[in-house]
Amino acid sequence: MSSINTVPALDDFANERKHMVESQLRSRGIHDERVLNAMLQVPRHEFVSEELRTKAYADHPIPIAEDQTISQPFIIALSLQALALTGSESVLEVGTGSGYQTALLAVLARAVFSIERYATLARGAEAILAKLGYGNVRVFVGDGSHGLREFAPFDAIVVSAAAPTIPKSLVGQLAEKGRMVIPVGPPHAQQLQLVRNADGTVAIETLEGCRFVPLVGAEGY
Asked: Which class would CATH give 14-210?
C-alpha cells in the first residue's frame, strides 16, 4: 500500500475530491504531488458520519465521535507535505481519530503505527481501514504523548492534537533525520511546528497557525 495510484476510485464524491485538491490545496501552495494524489484517492467521506457526508470535502474540520474532529484538508496536506514521505518510511501517528489521515499515511508510507486515546475511535477506524483495504496500518489504544517506544525509531511522526510543549518521548522516538509535525501552544490557538532530528540536534520550524483539540496525556494536557 505504499505505492500511490494517481487515478482515484470511482464514486459519487470523485469530483468533490478533485475540487478539494485544486481549490483548497494546490491553489494554496501544496505542491507535493504524492500528497495531492493521495488526497485525490482516499475517500474522506467514508470517515465521517452519514449525516455529514455532504460536508466531507468542505474547507473546515468535521466533527466525529468523542468530541474530536477530522482536521481541515489544508492542515492535513500541509502536515503531510512537511513530512516529505517517499514511501519507504515507518510512521507514527498520534491521534487516529476516524482514520482518515491514517489512510493517507498508509498510501504515502511503508508502515503506519497509529495510537488513539479513545478505544471507540480506534476500533471504528480499524474497521473502516480494513474495509477499504489499507493493510499496512496498526492501531493501538493508549497515551499518545508517550508514543510507541516498542516500534521506534520512526522516520516520521505526525501528531493530531495540540501539546503545551513538544513531548520529549516523541522526540526520543524520531530516527536520525526523522521529522515530526505537531501543533504546540495553549488550548485555543497553536502553531503547527516541524521538528527535525539531525546528528543529535533538534531543529524547529513554524509552519502555520492552527487550532487542534488538546493532546491529553502524561506529556500533553
From this structure: alpha beta
